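Q: My labmate handed me this sequence with no annotations at all. I'd like to see what the chain might look like in three dimensions before we decide whether it's worth expressing. Could you predict it?
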Amino acid sequence: MLHVARLAILALSASLALYAEPKVVLYFDALPPEILTDQQMKTEFSALTEPLGLHTEWRTLPARSGKGELGRLIVVRLLGDCVTTSDAASVESGEPVASVQEVDGRILPFIDVHCDTLVSLVRPAWKDRTPYEKRRLLGRSLARVLAHEVYHVVGQTHDHAAEGITKARLNSGELTARAAQIAPRSFSAPAESPASTSDAASTDGR
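A: Here is what I predict for the chain of 206 residues:
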């Protein structure tokens, strides 16, 4: 119950945040257990979003202080095993690697990352890689999936770009490539109302 109450308080706080706020506070129920994966996720996410004016603070729910939180609050759950040693089974093309929820036309500040699906998708890119390189690639993939979903929450839109990490489907190569693209206005404030098209990054076998 205490955990649910914390989530409810965070959701309420996020709903009261101003759209123009250029900072997000990402609250994780738990960070990736592999330290290098965690570090790479944060580095890659910042490299993608800070040039667009979005600054991020990283926190975990148990450590929440309730002080100094002036940005938009978003809760992130890593579901499954976000580790390179995961034995996640192969998934069908089109399975979501992450998702957000909507109530009454508003996208809620909760992001679920489906780690088993993500690991299964990017595992082919790990062939002949060292454990160090595998952790870096998983962290990079997590960052890009997370940036995709933060784009939906901050922009209050289900729309997708034609290219880059905010397009509808991302394949293994796009999630692990050395460089990634993101639309310049991806994290702008929304217009009068959110769009109503399809949502969430999905796996793509291409």
